[in-house]
Amino acid sequence: MSRTVLALLAASFVFPATASDLLGGESLSASVDTSAHSYDLIDSNSDSDMMAATSFAGLPIAVSSVADSQAGPGSGSASLSGTRFLNGVTATGFTVASASANSDSGSDGSAVSEFLFSFTLGSSADYVLDWEFAGGGLLVTGFSELSLVGPGNVELFAQDHGTFGTISGQALGTLGSGTYTLHAISMSFATGSGSGSEGADASFNIGFSVVPAPGAAALFGMAGVMGVRRRRFVA
Predict the structure, then answer these.
(1) Spans in the chain with pLDDT lower than 50
(2) Of 67, 214, 230, 231, which residue is most buried, by most CB within 10 angstroms?
């Protein structure tokens, strides 16, 4: 007997445009996806669950997903949360999967947490990208990946983690005008069989923000000075 559960949540918010917010033309996709299976000589049970949210801004967002093979030996769990703030965004994703040998023909579980944020800069800006990955589990661990891609599909930053333990770092740089995509994902997979059980987990935690590049700031400042002088001249 097979059972499938599918849940979909979509939310849409509008971030109020402000003169000081540099991240224009934004779009976002945040999703979590889990599945679990157990294979028996008599019954084969399966379960899947997916939840997603799009276009959050100003308000925090949180989605979660859980699947298990009818309380059988395979299971998966995933969650993702994030916040859009002035000139920046944060996101945290977590996944865990487990599978037991307590099934005639084995079992498996999987979990995926994925964050995708695109934005457009009208002028040059300096960016700061803080990141942290963690991996753990029983016999196996999950995998996480982070990238920042710019105009022309040029990869400006990339980092991944597929081993046990925690790593973290910070990336700094200057972005020109154009459209950029920030992508983070964590995945966990586990398989149970006669040889034993497995469990895996993986997570990411990122923070991204931009400020006007010094050159752009200088231009803004010069424009202000020229405006003042022009008004004084007219007066």
Answers:
(1) 1-19, 58, 215-235
(2) 67
Give φ, ψ of 144 to 5 degrees. Answer: -130, 150
What is residue 224's DSSP assignment?
A: H
Provide the token pair at 180.
Answer: 């950029």
**Is the Cβ–Cβ distance between 95 and 45 less than 8 Å?**
no
Instruction: Report d(CA 67, CA 23) in Å as an integer.
Output: 36
pLDDT digits (tens, 9 = 90+) for 204-226: 999 999 998 874 444 344 334 33
- State how far the Cα of 180 lies from the Cα of 216, in Å rounded to an integer: 18
The rounded distance, in Å, linking the Cα atoms of 144 and 93 is 10
Which H/E stretch holds residue 226? helix 214-234
Question: Are 204 and 123 a contacting pair, CB within 8 Å?
Answer: no
Q: Under a CB-based contact definition with an 8 Å cutoff, are residues 31 and 42 in contact?
A: no
Closest by CA position to 76, among listed 105, 99, 93: 99
Which amino acid makes up residue 180? Y
